[in-house]
C-alpha cells in the first residue's frame, strides 16, 4: 500500500494550527502499517527558515515541471527533505510567485494558489511518484485534487489508478470562490452544477472534495455525526449525508514521544505523575517568564489556540472581569482575528498582575504553558477534534471544555465521589456554564487536594497516542482501495 499525503501545513516546516501536528506525526505511525508513505506540501516562505532552524536537509529533485490542466502555465520545481527523525520523504512544490507570503494563508487569490498547487501535485505524482495508490488530501486547500482526478484524469493511465481519502479537519473553512475559478483551474464547466461544485452561485472547493473523494473522514466520531446536522453542517450537511456510507470519524492522536513531560527538552523541569513537584517548578518559571507574581499555590488557567470565533473566545472574554476577582492567574497564547486580539489586549492593561495575554505564535511558550498551568480552558463553539486538551492532559493540566466534537470524545467529567473522570465540561454554549465549571475546579484545587491529585493522575493516565487511530486509517485506506467511486 503506497500512500501520498498532501497538506498545506506540516509541522515543523509550517504550522498555523492542529492540521500541521496531524500531518507531521500521523505518517510516522502509518509507516508501520503501509509499504510506503510520502508527504507533499507547498514550499511556503517559512519552510526555508524552519529547515535551517531544525537543521534538516534540503535537495532539489525536479525543476521546470508544469501543471497539467491549469491555465497558469508557470513552471514549478520540487525540493525534498524528510520528517524529523524519520526517513519519510516530504516534497515541497516551489513557485516563487505563488507561495511567497510570510503568513501561509495570506496570499490574496487563494483560489489561484490552491488550484495551481493541486494540479502541480498531480503532475509531480504522475511523473515522480507513479507508484502512489492512495492520495490522502486534507481540508479545502487540497480538495481539488479529487476533483481533477475524477474528472480531468479519469482516463489517465497512471492517475486513474489512484484512490483518494479526504480528511476534514474543520468544516468551518470551505474555500468558496466566484465561478470563474473553474475556467482558470482548467476544470470542466459542467461542474458548475448543484450536484457538483456549485454552492449558492459560487464554487465550493470542499464540496468538490466531499463529492469526488472515495472515502471521507473527519477527526472524531462525534464531529462526524455533528456535521450531518444543520447546526454544525455549515450548509454542507446535506452533501455529507449523501456520502454517509463513506464518512468516518477517526480521533486524532498526539505524538507521545515528543509530548512527554518526562523527557521534553523545551521545559526546564521534567516530571511525571509521581513527581508532580516539578510541575510546580515549571509553574514558577512560567510566572517569572511572563512577569506574573511568583506563587506556586495560585491556580493558573490557560488558553492556547487560534483566537477565532470557533474557540469560544467570546465566552472567555465575557467572564474575564469576574475571574480577576478570584485568586487565580490567567494566561492566553494565540493569534487570529484582530477584533478578538484587540479585545483581549485591552484586558492585559487592566489587570497586569493577573493576566498574561500573548498575541503571538510561540511553540516553546506553548509547551511551557501546557506544563506549568493547572487548568486548560477550551470552551469551543465547535471542535472537530482538538489537540490542546490532549496535550494539556498529558502534562497533568486539567481541561475544562464544552462537550462538542472531539472534546466530548476525549474528556470525561470528573467526580470527587467516584474519583473517576479527567476534566470538566458543559453542553450549552454560555459563559455562565464556563464560569461555574471554572469555580468548581478552583474549589477542588484549593480545598480538595487529594481529589485534585487523583484528577491529575487520571488525566495523565489517558492514552491518546496514535497507535489505535493509525489502525483505523489503515482500515479506511483498504476500503478506499477496494471501493473507487467512479
Ligand atoms: N499561538 C500559538 N503558539 C503556539 N502554538 C499554538 C498557537 N496557537 C495554536 N497553537 C498550537 O496549534 C495546535 C492547535 O490545534 P487544535 O487541534 O487544538 O486546533 P485547530 O483549530 O488549529 O485545528 C483543527 O484541526 C485539528 C487537527 O485535525 C483539530 O484537532 C481541530 O479540532 C481543528 O479545529 C496545538 O498544537 C496548539 O498548541
TrEMBL record:
Protein role: Synthesizes alpha-1,4-glucan chains using ADP-glucose.
Q: Which organism is it from?
A: Marinitoga hydrogenitolerans (strain DSM 16785 / JCM 12826 / AT1271)
Biological process according to GO:
glycogen biosynthetic process
* Gene Ontology molecular-function annotations: alpha-1,4-glucan glucosyltransferase (ADP-glucose donor) activity; alpha-1,4-glucan glucosyltransferase (UDP-glucose donor) activity
Question: PANTHER family, per this entry?
Answer: ALPHA AMYLASE DOMAIN-CONTAINING PROTEIN, GRANULE-BOUND STARCH SYNTHASE 1, CHLOROPLASTIC/AMYLOPLASTIC
SUPFAM superfamilies membership: UDP-Glycosyltransferase/glycogen phosphorylase (SSF53756)
The Starch synthase catalytic domain sits at 2-241
**InterPro entries the record matches:** Glyco_trans_1, GS/SS, Starch_synth_cat_dom
Stored Gene3D superfamilies: Glycogen Phosphorylase B (3.40.50.2000)
Q: Which reaction does it catalyse?
A: [(1->4)-alpha-D-glucosyl](n) + ADP-alpha-D-glucose = [(1->4)-alpha-D-glucosyl](n+1) + ADP + H(+)
Which gene is the coding source of this polypeptide chain?
glgA
Q: What is this protein called?
A: Glycogen synthase
Binding residues for ADP-alpha-D-glucose, per the UniProt record? 15
Pathway in which the depicted protein is active = Glycan biosynthesis; glycogen biosynthesis
Pfam families cross-referenced by the UniProt entry: Glyco_transf_5, Glycos_transf_1
Q: Which UniProt keywords apply?
A: Glycogen biosynthesis, Glycosyltransferase, Transferase
Q: What is its EC number?
A: 2.4.1.21
Traced from the root, the source organism's taxonomic lineage reads: Bacteria, Thermotogati, Thermotogota, Thermotogae, Petrotogales
Q: Which CDD domains does the record cross-reference, listed alphabetically?
A: GT5_Glycogen_synthase_DULL1-like (cd03791)
